[in-house]
Write a structure and sequence with these properties.
single chain; mainly beta; Immunoglobulin-like; 11-stranded parallel beta sheet
C-alpha cells in the first residue's frame, strides 16, 4: 500500500484559543477510560484529549459541540495521528453525529478505520452508509485525520453526510470502499448548501459510482484536493455529481482515476447538475475519459488543464473558456507527488482574474499546488502590541502576506537570557496574499515587569525564521488583594482560580470541603505582585461544594467551588 500522506493542520488554534478559554479538558484514558465516557460527561465547548493508543467501537457526540482531539493539536507531530486510532471493529460507523452538532464540533488528529456503516432511514430499506463518519443534519469540522479502510455497502465509505454542511479539510482519505450499488467511497455528501472540502488527499478508494467523491443535491465548495487512483465500477471514477448538484470545484488535481464500466473516469455530471469547474487538472485517467456529461446538465468549465485521459478529455461536453491540453509535469515518484515542475503547462494557466492569483502574486496555476514562480513576498510583521489584564499580556501581530507558512510560536526571553516558548503552535494561513491578524495571551507575565518577545515563524518544510524583538512593559497594576471567582463554575473536572496581589506577599492557597476538612494545597510561599492563576483538577473527588481559601499576609478570602459530575 502506498505510504499514507498526512496533511498538516492549518488554522486550528485561532479557534482553539476561544474553545480552551470556555471549556474544560477531559483526558482519555487517564481521566475517563473510554472516549464515549468522556463525551457523556462533557458539555458544549469542552475538549476531549485522547492519548495515543487504539480505541475500539463507535463514538457518538450526542448533539454536543465538543473538540475530540489527539495530542496532534499541541504537538503538530503526525505520528500522533498515526498512533491515535479509532477502530470501528467493523461493527458500525466509527464516529456518529446526528443531533445538530455545529461547526464548533471538531474531530482532529486521529486514524479512523474499520467502520462498516450505519443503518440509514430505518423503515425505508436496509441501507448502510458512512463507514468512517455518519453525519445527519450535522455541520462539524473534520480535520487532519487519516480516514482509511472503512466500508459502507450503500455509500460514503469514508464519510457520509446528509442535511448538514461539514468542513472536511486536511485529511488523508484512503482505501475506503462501498458495495457495487454504493456511491462515494471517499465521501458522499447529500443535501448540503455550504459544505467545504478543502486540501485533502482522496486516494485509492473503490465504489460502485463516484470512487473519490459523490455529491447528491449538494452545492459544496471543493478546493485544492488531490483526487487520485480512485475507481468506480460504474461511472465517475474521481467524482460523480448527480441529482441537481451545483458545487464550486476550483484548483483540484484529479488524476489516475478510472470509471471501469461507463464514463467519467475523472468526473461525471448527471441529473441536471451544474457545477462551476475552474482551474483544475484532469490527467492520466485510466478508463472512462476525463470529464463526462450524461443527460441535460449545465456545467461551466474554464481554465482547466487536460492531459492523457484514456477515452478522451471531454465526453458530451465542449471545452470551456481557457481550457487547454498539455503536460502538467508533476514531480512524480513513489508515492506519487502532484506538485508541479518548471515545464508544467499548468503554470500560469488558470483564471487570469487577479482575485485568483497565486500567493506569489503571479497568475493562478491549475491544480491543487501552485508553482512558486514569482519573488516570494516575505512574512511581514506589521505590528506588535501588548496590553495587560487579569489574563496576562495580550500580544497582537499582523502579516501582509504569507508563503507556505505553517505556524507561529511566541517566544519570551527568560532570566538567563535564553529564548523559551510561551505559546503552543499557533497555526498560520498557509499561502495568502491577504493580511491576517493574530493574537496570543501570555498568561504567565507578571505585573510591573518588562519582557522581550519574538515570534518563531515555521514554514511547511519545517524551516524557521525569527521576527525582530519586541519589548512589552506590563504596567504595575493598582490591584487590591483579592480572590476572583473561579471559572468555569460549576466545573468538571478542572477550574481556574485567580488571585491578585498589589505587592509581593506570602500566600497560602488551599481547598477544603464543605465541612472545612482540608482537601488540597494549591500554592504556598512568597509570590510577586500581580495576577496569579492556578488550575485545580478535582477529577478524583465526588460532586459537591468545596471552599477555596486564600491567606495573603494578614488577609483571608474564601470562594465556593461547585463540582458537578
Amino acid at each position: 500500500m502506498q505510504m499514507l500522506k498526512v496533511c498538516l493542520l492549518l488554522g486550528f488554534l485561532v479557534v482553539f484559543g476561544v474553545t480552551a478559554a470556555w471549556g474544560t479538558t477531559l483526558h482519555v484514558p487517564t481521566g475517563y477510560t473510554t472516549i464515549q465516557a468522556a463525551i457523556n460527561a462533557a458539555v458544549n465547548l469542552d475538549t476531549v484529549l485522547v492519548d495515543t493508543g487504539v480505541y475500539h467501537g463507535s463514538v457518538d457526540l450526542m448533539g454536543k459541540d465538543l473538540v475530540i482531539t489527539s495530542h496532534y493539536l499541541f504537538s503538530a507531530d503526525t505520528t500522533d495521528i498515526l498512533n491515535t486510532v479509532l477502530d470501528g471493529d467493523s461493527s458500525g460507523s466509527v464516529v456518529v453525529m446526528t443531533s445538530g452538532e455545529s461547526e464548533a464540533a471538531l474531530v482532529l488528529g486521529f486514524t479512523i478505520r474499520n467502520g462498516s456503516g450505519h443503518l440509514y432511514q430505518p423503515g425505508y430499506g436496509d441501507f448502510y452508509v458512512g463507514g468512517g463518519f455518519y453525519l445527519i443534519n450535522a455541520s462539524p469540522r473534520i480535520r487532519s485525520n487519516v480516514i482509511q479502510e472503512n466500508y459502507a455497502l450503500d455509500g460514503g465509505g469514508g464519510i457520509f453526510s446528509d442535511g448538514g454542511d461539514p468542513v472536511i479539510e486536511l485529511n488523508t482519505i484512503v482505501n475506503n470502499a462501498t458495495g457495487s450499488p454504493g456511491c462515494g467511497a471517499g465521501m458522499l455528501l447529500k443535501n448540503s448548501d455550504e459544505a467545504v472540502v478543502d486540501s485533502n488527499y482522496i486516494e485509492f478508494n473503490f465504489a460502485g459510482h463516484g470512487g473519490g467523491i459523490a455529491l447528491k443535491h449538494s452545492h459544496a465548495t471543493i478546493t485544492r484536493n488531490v483526487i487520485s487512483y480512485n475507481t468506480a465500477m460504474g461511472d465517475g471514477g474521481g467524482m460523480r455529481l448527480y441529482t441537481e448538484s451545483n458545487p464550486t470545484i476550483i484548483n483540484n488535481t484529479i488524476s489516475h482515476n478510472c470509471a471501469a464500466a461507463y464514463s467519467g473516469g475523472g468526473m461525471q455530471v448527471v441529473d441536471g447538475s451544474a457545477p462551476i469547474f475552474m482551474n483544475n487538472i484532469i490527467s492520466y485517467t485510466a478508463c472512462g475519459g476525463g470529464f463526462a456529461v450524461a443527460g441535460i446538465c449545465a456545467p461551466v468549465l474554464s481554465y482547466n488543464l487536460f492531459h492523457e485521459n484514456t477515452g478522451g478529455d471531454y465526453l458530451n461536453v465542449l471545452p470551456g473558456t481557457g481550457d487547454l491540453t498539455g503536460n502538467p509535469a508533476y514531480v512524480g515518484g513513489t508515492p506519487y507527488d502532484y506538485h508541479l515542475t518548471a515545464p508544467s503547462a499548468a503554470i500560469s494557466s488558470g483564471n487570469p482574474d487577479p482575485q485568483y492569483n497565486d500567493p506569489d502574486g503571479t497568475r493562478n496555476d491549475c491544480g491543487a499546488f501552485y508553482y512558486p514562480s514569482g519573488p516570494a513576498t516575505p512574512v511581514v510583521l506589521a505590528a506588535f502590541t501588548a496590553s495587560s489584564s487579569l489574563q496576562g499580556v495580550t500580544l497582537t501581530w499582523t502579516t501582509a502576506s504569507e508563503i507556505e507558512s505553517y505556524g507561529w510560536v511566541v517566544q519570551r526571553m527568560d532570566e538567563a537570557g535564553s529564548w523559551a516558548a510561551v505559546s503552543p503552535l499557533i497555526a498560520a494561513h498557509g499561502s495568502s496574499v491577504e493580511p491576517h491578524d493574530y493574537t496570543y495571551t501570555d498568561a504567565t507575565a507578571q505585573a510591573g515587569c518588562a519582557y522581550r518577545y519574538r515570534l518563531e515563524q515555521i514554514d511547511l518544510d519545517g524551516s524557521a525564521t525569527y521576527s525582530p524583538e519586541v519589548t512589552a512593559t506590563v504596567p504595575a497594576l493598582a490591584l487590591d488583594f483579592g480572590l476572583q471567582p473561579n471559572y468555569p463554575n460549576p466545573f468538571n473536572p478542572e477550574t481556574a482560580i485567580v488571585y491578585t496581589l498589589p505587592e509581593a506577599t506570602p500566600v497560602y492557597l488551599a481547598v477544603y470541603d464543605a465541612a472545612g476538612r482540608f482537601v488540597q494545597e494549591l500554592a504556598s510561599g512568597l509570590r510577586p505582585a500581580g495576577t496569579h492563576q492556578v488550575t485545580w483538577n478535582a477529577g478524583n473527588l465526588p460532586s459537591g461544594t468545596y471552599l477555596c481559601r486564600l491567606q495573603a499576609g494578614s488577609l483571608a478570602f474564601t470562594r465556593p467551588l461547585t463540582l458537578i459530575k
